Amino acid sequence: SQSRSYEYSELIQIQERPLTDPLVINFGASTARLTDTLFEFDMTGNGETAQFASLGAGSGYLVFDRNGNGKVDDGSELFGPESGSGFSELAAFDDDGNRWIDANDEIFQSLSVWVQTADGGQDLRSLAEVGVQALYVDSVDDRFTLTNPQGVPLGQIKASGIYLTTDGEVRTLEELDLAEQNTESAPAVETVLGVRNAEPEMSGAASAREEAIRNAIEKLNEIREKQQV
After folding, report:
1. Domain boundaries, the chain
2. CA-to-CA distance for 24 and 36, rounded, in angstroms?
3. Which of 98, 143, 164, 169 places its Cα 20 to 30 Å from the Cα of 133?
4. Superkingdom of the source (predicted)?
């Protein structure tokens, strides 16, 4: 029988707040949160920095330290800011084509997680330190806007996927559009919360995986809505 899944989405219009979308690993949180603490970073890799809201505790940015200097130089060492599709960038490194990035893929040992310090600084941790065993490269659309207590948009979760921990648990991997916070004018915001029935015509393992992700997103949205109150 065909099951029904639901996709919660927020449509948001933001003026003069460009969005960039790095991948976020939630190793100690159910879903990504953004705080009022700002950090300055060259997210686009063009040599110009901008201010963004810092991640909350339990989440970190997935990093590929391309030059091996032990720090995140700019957005080119994250997944998403250059192409706008972090999951697609990650999938390009799936050497054996099994839709997972794990120890069988060359890049796995070069990946780390940028956990932000209280002042927005860098604390790079290995995947082993945060308990990552394998990252799934597919995702489902998952639009959810993150705001501060004043209602100013700090970012938007664009898509969600999963990863396996070394303990065998399933946790979330999210593509997070960060809104630049250093614009002078206040944003014009129009938010519409909608529920859309989604009944994908798939079968077998692919259908089961997508259904599992969508079910996880339903639970995540319940958590997010409580956090936004």
Report:
1. 18-185
2. 18
3. 143
4. Bacteria
